[in-house]
Amino acid sequence: MTQDWVLILGANSDMATATARRFAQAGYNIQLASRNTEELIKEAENLNVKYGVEVRTFFFDALDFDSHAAFYANLNAKPSGVIVAFGLLGDQQAAQHDFTIAKSIIDTNYSGAVSILEIIAEDFERRRWGFIVGISSVAGDRGRKSNYLYGSAKAGFSAYLSGLRHRLFATGVSVLTVKPGFVATKMTAGLDLPEKLTATPQEVAEKIFVGVKKKKNTLYVKPVWRLIMTIIIHLPECIFKRTKL
Ligand SMILES: NC(=O)c1ccc[n+]([C@@H]2O[C@H](COP(=O)([O-])OP(=O)(O)OC[C@H]3O[C@@H](n4cnc5c(N)ncnc54)[C@H](OP(=O)(O)O)[C@@H]3O)[C@@H](O)[C@H]2O)c1
Q1: Which of 43, 80, 130, 189 has the fewest CB atoms lying closer than 10 Å?
Q2: Active-site residue, 150 included
Q3: What's the chain's average pLDDT?
């Protein structure tokens, strides 16, 4: 059993719940943070009973940038690692007509993550250890008409994580970019996802846990997604423009 804590931001996400369970199973104490604290409290009890670890819950709103410094300062213990799981797919069509909706997609997936991670990175950099995991998306690998607002925010987040990894490398702090591909969660409920390309939250959790232990840089949960995205990235623009992706 370790005294280490793992902070999970957006902890009600299905991937986050599975990842919290994986780290709790390995003996980590868990800090669950999100907006819906009632749900967090239920999961905290579950983790505590099942794995015998300490679990604390915190209110956290990725969009309330001004609260982020106090949120981190007030944690009961500074975590060994942080996992940024919050995100918002949003409605691309609606966002094309309403910038308020577009802004919530951009701010949830990009600005909110940058705001809290800059605070945490400074602490980890000073003490010279820790791990940071950001759940980004293959949607960020190339902008497509079906979801380019979400995709561009995730592209920004992937580039941000790449820069953060570069900055923190010399201090021993690792930064893992996760590109899950399709995952069966609340976010994708109702979408008709191809079974072979769709991971479970538990598969994501296992890949994250192993990725952290091996200090990996970037991972595609189902390796076939690396191939798919390599093809999509390399499609010449004159062909890409004509696809229905
Ligand atoms: N599902 C997929 O196919 C897929 C694929 C690629 C990447 N991803 C990414 O993977 C991550 C997890 O996704 P998921 O599918 O597990 O999503 P999910 O089950 O829909 O959960 C998303 C979570 O984000 C939290 N959230 C949203 N806005 C927030 C805010 N302002 N402040 C704090 N938390 C906020 C919500 O928690 P509260 O409502 O409790 O605050 C919610 O539990 C996301 O970053 C998503 O973009 C998902």
Answers
A1: 189
A2: yes
A3: 97
